[in-house]
Amino acid sequence: FSYSKEFEKVYLIIYDVKGSIRPANIKELKANFQKIIADKLKCAPI
Question: Which residue in 19, 22, 29, 36 is a FRET match for 3, CA 20 to 30 A apart?
Fold first, then answer.
């Protein structure tokens, strides 16, 4: 994965819909997005 605005939008939408905890801010998201995505994919229904 690589970070992009598109990813950011999709990520925030996923988190809105699922009611999950979002990173506090975009900087944190950028710093941690690979780990976050890995965690998300592990528990996400495919």
Answer: 19
